[in-house]
Amino acid sequence: MNINLIFLLAGLLLFVGVLVNKPSTRYGIPGLLLYLSIGLFVGNGGDYDFIFNYPAQASVYSTVAISLIIFIGGLETDFQRIKPILREGFALSTVGVLITSMLIALLGTYLLGLSWWEGLLLGSVLSATDAAAVFSILESKKLRLRERISETLEFESGTNDPVAYFLTISITSILLGEPVSGGWLGFEFLLGVLLALLVGYGIGRFTVWIINRLRLDIPGLYPLLILAVILFLIGLMPIIKGNLLLTMYVTGLTIGNRVFTNRQYTFDFYRSISWLMEISLFIILGLQVFPDQLVPHLGDALIITVFLILLARPVSVFLIYLFFRSSLEKRVFISWVGLRGATPIVFGLIPLAAGLESASFIFNSAFVIVILSVIIQGGSIGWLAKKLGIEEPPVTDEEVLSTP
Questions:
Q1: 8 A C-beta contact, residue 160 and residue 124
Q2: Distance CA 313, CA 335 (A)
Q3: pLDDT cut 90: percent of the chain above it
Q4: I want to staple 277 with a disulfide (CB 3.0 to 4.6 A). Which of 65, 91, 182, 311 is the partner?
Q5: Is-contact 17 266, C-beta < 8 A?
Q6: CA atoms within 13 A on the CB side of 250
Q7: Which candidate, 299, 303, 294, places its Cα nearest to that of 106?
Q8: Which residue ranges run through the membrane (predicted)?
Q9: CA-to-CA distance for 169 and 124, rounded, in angstroms?
């Protein structure tokens, strides 16, 4: 394709993506659906269309975009808000992912005709919830929830991607015939987590230290310095076998919870970058999907969606909350609000780019499941919150004025 046409189309698609944000916010339609639709209806080789079929390149871009989104999620997270729910949030984002993956693997093996490893790959791809999907819907419905439910969902959805990503990469390697033992996988995972925590915290502290001593004359250079650090980490972590996505979250969390020069300017800059990454990511994922390839997988995708929403997610949540004190209402709500967003589609690109036999089924099923999850679960969040009585009353003007 002509390079000028590529830039023309990129600008046009991004322009349309920004415009549809207004009706998305006004009518409570998840932006994810609109952005995916933009990509879905072009790039399929129609009479006045082009063919977009670059899974390897889309996978690389998606990994970079997800890394930036997770970094920004960490940057904007107030550690004091999530501190009381760290243990349950961590359990949901690790053990919860493993339980969900195993349950879907059983479904895939005994009902869908997949091998055990293919079923486990499907489960790994689908196991992570999506922070952007959850909070765009909570924000659009202006929900304030009791029992730190919002904080729990925020932390879980921001930190469960690294576990699902590791499982997806590892199982893809196994299916490609690479010699990998269970013990080695466990060691590699723990090593990746340890490196992510050490590097993320260390680089985050070092970045803040540098920023506060540089005294640059141009404010716009400070966010660029942080961007340089992000790109450095995206290149470094795969080399040293560290968990990239967890590194991004820890680095963002470390930087965001410290005072540094031009802090507000930097936050505003990265909010724009977050929108750019989300819009472009969903459009590219939509471009990579061919509607005619979705149709054969609709039935299986519907079965998986029902199983995921009504069994896999609730079982994992209720098992984990056996070890934590919480109300039944909180458990039910968290069980229901396990929205799938960009990450299952992004992770579905990994086996597709690797050329696995079952990759087309996994990728196309993930796309359908994400759409159904956002429509079914996302569309009922407000109703369920009211039904369970977990909404906090809206903040009054008097409360705002009396806040010190």
A1: no
A2: 6
A3: 56
A4: 65
A5: no
A6: 21
A7: 303
A8: 58-77, 89-113, 119-138, 159-177, 189-208, 220-240, 246-261, 273-290, 302-324, 336-356, 362-385
A9: 9
